[in-house]
């Protein structure tokens, strides 16, 4: 018994000493996974996986067929992109090149490389006679059709409408009788000018006198009438031409505004022109305190404003040049945590994301082939994307509209058709907007807002 107790005691002492000796290692092992540096070392210590040899196609057709199988069955988009690009370097015929470029565009769209995807599809249309309707109906390109890059690409398609032509068409739509007036006044002015030249010759002959010379009084009368006609027609033509130039400047500004983008979350970024005909945006720009206060003041008119399809777009400027928003780092950090899933259960986050994607896919099925807005997109507050682009446009618009440059806080109210209805410094007149704007369902809406077809 004594021997057993002595052995037990010695064992306990030895175990205690061993635990004390190993305690730093034990603590380090508990802390190590939490230290980024140790994590990097641990990951680096793992043997690198052996890379799978890339498939080398024997022909352009083989490359396209393999890429399509990899894209659809294995969901390996990177490999599909590589194979489609490889096929274009293997002297494909017209049908193969058309298929490779179009499918490459679809794969690049899955990678969210919007500009490259649009360029690839435009090449297939322009160079290899792909029908545009194919791209407009393909479900793989649903997200691409919402993007600004796609809308810009459509201006480069054969038979498409360029930006300048769009501006001219919208300008004429605002004043449909201006162009006929310009043509009419130009014709009348030309006739009056020719008549004036003839009368001047007759006047010279009348002044010279002699047999067969025209009467001086008659020539002077005709000279006065034609001179007056030339002056009046010149003024009318000059006025219409100037008005058209001014209208083109305004419409160009509005088209640039339409290219500004809105972040709807879930990787959905839409240009503002997608909201035409369905939303009346009110851009509220200035420092954070002003913007939040202006939006809060709209709460009392919230229901009435929403019935009139009003949405606010807050654009926050720093208080002084170079000053950093004190909450900017906090918001960026929070966004990073949410993106990486830190602090959240991974399974729950994945399930939530899958449910959101399923709901979005179901809603997308109801959208038109040209792309449109879902009901959830017409929200009260729309977040600007690429805020620097919004800031640059707002500063230019303030100068264009003659707003004081020393007043940083302003608002810009946009109609359903994308034209600027009003702007000013300070808080938007919410109550006045409710009184002036008809309901979205009111027949006056189309008369006042000039709603045209969506892009």
TrEMBL record:
<feature type="transmembrane region" description="Helical">
    <location>
        <begin position="219"/>
        <end position="238"/>
    </location>
</feature>
<dbReference type="InterPro" id="IPR019734">
    <property type="entry name" value="TPR_rpt"/>
</dbReference>
<protein>
    <submittedName>
        <fullName>Uncharacterized protein</fullName>
    </submittedName>
</protein>
<keyword id="KW-0472">Membrane</keyword>
<dbReference type="InterPro" id="IPR021883">
    <property type="entry name" value="LPA1-like"/>
</dbReference>
<feature type="repeat" description="TPR">
    <location>
        <begin position="61"/>
        <end position="94"/>
    </location>
</feature>
<keyword id="KW-0802">TPR repeat</keyword>
<keyword id="KW-1133">Transmembrane helix</keyword>
<feature type="transmembrane region" description="Helical">
    <location>
        <begin position="182"/>
        <end position="204"/>
    </location>
</feature>
<keyword id="KW-0812">Transmembrane</keyword>
<dbReference type="InterPro" id="IPR011990">
    <property type="entry name" value="TPR-like_helical_dom_sf"/>
</dbReference>
<dbReference type="Pfam" id="PF11998">
    <property type="entry name" value="DUF3493"/>
</dbReference>
